Each structure stands twice: as C-alpha cells, then as structure tokens.
Amino acid sequence: MALMAFVWGALGGLALLIGALIGLYVPTKRRVIGYVMALGAGVLISSVAFELVDEAAKKGGLNVALLGLVVGAVAYWFVDRIVSRRGARHRKRSGDHMKNEEGGSGLSILVGSLMDGIPESVAIGASLLGGSGVSLAMVVAVFLSNVPESLSSAVGMKKAGYSTRRILVTWTAVLLVSGLSSWLGYVLLGDAAPTTLAFIQCFAAGAIITMLASTMLPEAHEQGGPSVGLVTTLGFLAAFVLSRLG
Fold it and tell me: What is the pLDDT of residue 121?
C-alpha cells in the first residue's frame, strides 16, 4: 500500500510534467490557459472542502480542523513570502512577469513549485489511510489543477529565458517529490491518532487554499477574464458530483 501511495502521488505530479510539455511545445491561447486553470482550481476547492476538511472535522472535531486550517494557511503564507522575495513570486504566470522580476532565481521557482505541490501529495497519501482506497476525487482534482499550473509556469519560464532542459528538470523533480511526499504521508501517518490525522489533513487543506488564492486564481483571471468565475464554479460542481458518486 505504501508503494501505491507513491504511485498515486507521482500520478498527480506527472500532470505537472505533462502540463510543462504542453506549455513548451503546444501553442495555447491565453484564454484557454485561464479557463483550464480556473477549472482545476474549482475542482481542487471542492475536493479540499469535502474530501479533506469535512472528513477531518468528522474524525478529529471542529476545533482540530480549524486549527489545522489556520496553521497550514499561515505556514504556506510565510514560506511563500520568502520564496517570492527571492524571485518566485510569479512562478505560475505565463506572461513576462518572471522576465521582469528582479532577483529571479531558478532555485526559488523550484522551491516554490515544490512547496505548492507537497500539500496536495500529502493529502493523497493521507486519503489511503482510511482503508477504503485512495480518494479518486482528490487524485483527479490534483491532476486537473496541476496541468494548467505547470503549463502556465513553463510558458512564463520560457519567456524569462530558461532553457527547455532546465524547465523539464524542474518539473521532473517536482514529480518525484510529489510521489515521495504522498508516500511519506502514508508511512508517517499510518499509526497516527484520528485527531493527528485530522490536523494534518486540514493543514494541507489550508496550504492548498492559500496557494490557490495567491497563485492560480489571479493568473486564471488575468488570462481568462471575468468568465473564469463561472468556469471555477463548474469545476467545483464537477468535483462535488464525483465525490458523491465515489
């Protein structure tokens, strides 16, 4: 089962590499990038709400869930400020933002991308601990959100002068760390108390929500315009239905 945790986490990470390849080799209109990113964000918001937070509150209680959400959000915000100041503020933008950003650093972009993906992967690994198998809704949500995420970032990195090899190495590294994070989430939390597991799930949820608000949704709106609100809602509804069918 631990191996399956790695496989499922790596599958979510594989979407990042697929998105990067599309961004590098397939001409994609800005509006399409915005719409797909909004769809992925909506799917992820729904999965976080129903697959992580709701389940965590049932297992560990409302207070534990609230604490995990707040701590996860603050932790992501704190680390995001550090990597943003070092040149990774626009790591998911497809425009000239990275090119124009002072102090841009490939390492900071890599660290920022890893930071964005780890909470999602831990959530996938933790979903296996219930004994009923992986949360399909969570895996689909991560996959759908990761493709436009890396697509947009790869386009922006290319415009900033990063080589194709460097871009692909970056996202391959994120893929491997995603699998490892899912594996660690399963192994380390295997004997955890329900309250501990609930806290970790909500910690990941808080980090994911903060990531969406600070990176994915601004880019989606910039690329797709006001209509992305409708697309985000569509993604939310699709994931909600999927969670009820699972």
Answer: 78
- Whole-model pTM above 0.85? no
- 52 in a structural domain: yes
The pLDDT assigned to 212 comes to 86
Domain contains 33 = no
What would the 3-class secondary structure string for 173-232 be?
Answer: HHHHHHHHHHHHHHHHCCCCCHHHHHHHHHHHHHHHHHHHHHHHHHHHHHHHCCCHHHHH
> Computed over its alpha carbons, how large is the radius of gyration of the chain?
17
| Burial tier of 244 (Cβ tally within 10 Å: 0-12, 13-18, 19+) | exposed
For position 99, what pLDDT does the model report? Answer: 54
Are 96 and 103 a contacting pair, CB within 8 Å? Answer: no
d(CA 216, CA 232): 11
Domain that holds residue 7: 2-26+38-245
Domain count across the chain: 1
| Number of Cα atoms under 13 Å in the Cβ half of residue 130 | 15
Whether 185 maps to a domain, the answer reads yes
User: Does 31 fall in a domain?
Assistant: no
